[in-house]
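It would be a great kindness if you could assist me with a short task in structural biology. Thank you for your consideration; the sequence and its tokens are set out here.
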Amino acid sequence: MDHARAAISNLFGGEPLSYTRFSIARQTDGDNSHVEMKLAADDEEGGEIGRPEHLHASMPPPRRSGKNLCFLVIAAVLLLLIGFLIGYLSYRGRMQKASRCLDGSGKCETTPTASYLANDDETEEEEVPGPPVFYWPDLRTLLSDKLLAKHLEDNLRQRADKYSFEAGQSEDQMIASYIHDQFSSFLLDEVWNDEHYIKLQVKGSNNNEVSIVEDGKEEKLESPNAYVAYSKSGSVTGKPVYVNYGLKADFQKIQKQDVSLNGTIVIFRAGKITLAEKVANAKEAGAVGALMYLDPYSYSNTDTLVPFGHAHLGTGDPFTPGFPSFNHTQFPPVESSGLPHIVVQTISSQAVGKLFSKMDGEECLSEWKGGVLGCKVMLTNMSKVTVKLSVNNVMVDRKILNIFGAVKGSEEPDRYVVIGAQRDSWGPGAAKAGVGTAMLLELARVISDIVKKDGYKPRRSIIFASWSAGEYGAVGATEWLEGYSATLHAKAFTYINLDAAVLGFSDMKISASPLLYTLLERTMKGVKDPTKDSGSLYDRVGSDWVKTVVPLGLDNAAFPFLAYSGIPVVSFGFYNKDKEYPYLGTTDDTVENLKKTDKLYDLMRAAAEVAGQIALRLTHDHELFLDFERYSEELLVFQEKFLTYSRDVKALGLTLNWLFFARGDFQRATDALRRDIANSDRENKVIRRALNDRIMKVEYDFLSPYLSPKDAPFRHIFFGKGSHTLQSLLENLQLLRTNKDTVDVNKLKEQLALATWTIKGAANALVGDIWDTDNEF
């Protein structure tokens, strides 16, 4: 009947109508007849409605006569017949097209209208004329059929017989050129690179040294080949103190025993938190040096292994904090506040055992012992044993390359999902960078093949990205984000991280934005578990899988996308729950050692299928498959935690009510957006783009607008770092019970105010236009 309406409109000299929220009604007022455009129900509640004047054709009243009346009746009958014929022919054409969609090829000449976050992906969808696309079940099957474990094996073989892929060096440049050529051979729509000129700290001409000084005599304990980037260079001497994992709680436990850590060299084992966070805790406690080792309890067969690492509490080039390191940038003499300014080195567990044997202090607590024999917490006051730590690292200027390839969308090419993997590594880096790079190349090949050969037309673009300098703290990825910070949050709607996707086979680790929980959960249900005869990856984590989601760490390349740029992210991988992958970040991270993982290439293929399904689903549906209502649940969780301290806050003359009201406003905003999506015309591209704009902004609007990205780059109130986060506010409220005298009331007021208005601002942005927001709490 839409065709009939258009025909009638043309007969009366009207213009074509495509905005289907308007309805056309015949109005009769005396003898004047015209076509009136009436707004939808929300506009009928009151106020003026917009009626373009060119749609009102006022005509002088004609003379009444029997002949005219007869003519009008005949004309009306003819118009009804014409409308019926046009409608019938249109319906018959659609049915013929629908029959062609069922020929088993997976192709269809109609556009499926996907139900937003529908519970059943298999349901048939309404068909309307449009560009050729695939129904989702067919597209998902095609992806699965084309992904080949053999290709993944061939891609990973690039890491075999190589010693190092250090950022900016020859091997890194060679593999960058190889990836660029591969992207071009896949016939991607665009292939390009992104150059950055950065400062890196590398090992000096001599190895760093760790020595034991006893009664004035110095004995070299170890001189490892590995080093820690961004350590302070020089030599320091201090008494050794063991602090378990180097958590804040571990340092507090030592300090409660009246042990001063000023001027000491602390020793901690790897795990729980990043090396940079351990070093920051050591610096805060007053230590002048730090040593980290791989404990045999968690890392088997690593007695002599020494890992590489970096000590920058942040991401990106620490000498261009908050702005990009492009060649034309005039770099000011600044540095990141996350640089440690203490001497840091990694050593083997074997060397730590020798050090413990020289310490005559207290024995370690049972939960601190780990796998090194003779564990001692500290030296006695009478002991004359000290540790000397000498670091010879030097700063260098290097050019790094990020390599990109893009499949452009047919409707919104300026909106894209990014799939990325780190390329560089200290040592062979098979698990650290090889697996992700192999998956990146295979996904680029398969998705391009689906588009170029099978005819799939993604609505939005897909970008494949290979990052350099990831070992130094996601430098390549962060510099790209900083370079395009003004636009990326409005264009990139998801980042999928492929790094270290296979470190074992028994369990699965997931980190993601809440916006992607629903899509990730549904995707895992549709991907077969390669280690079992039946069942999906979803069975690994069970129905309550969200509780297994772990926070993103600073060592995850997805972290700056979420916490700095406000882009939803997902990062996942296979691992062994009881034992960490022992070779990660060491020179033993080889293809041969990685192949000891059971069904390595099948696991890589399963991980690639999950990533590919997420990317394709986000480019397939009319609306972005981002579950914005999840953040209402996350806010409710925090509200329940805050509620416990209502009386303590009230005693200070403050209230939590405004914060709770802001959460309610956000809930109402999500409800309003849900209604707008349900009532909208999915075939109207203007409306659909506007709705997707609102969905895309949800993550970005949780970046605190009251902080400078240069001084506090990780501004996300859920996942960022600093006093602006909801977690920091909660910790400050907890101090009202445990140590009230340490609470700064003015700081607490500021935290409450900024958190309230960040959430309120997110609610206002989600509603849409400013005249639709309610600024009364």
The longest strand covers residues 394-407. The two ends are 46 Å apart (CA to CA).
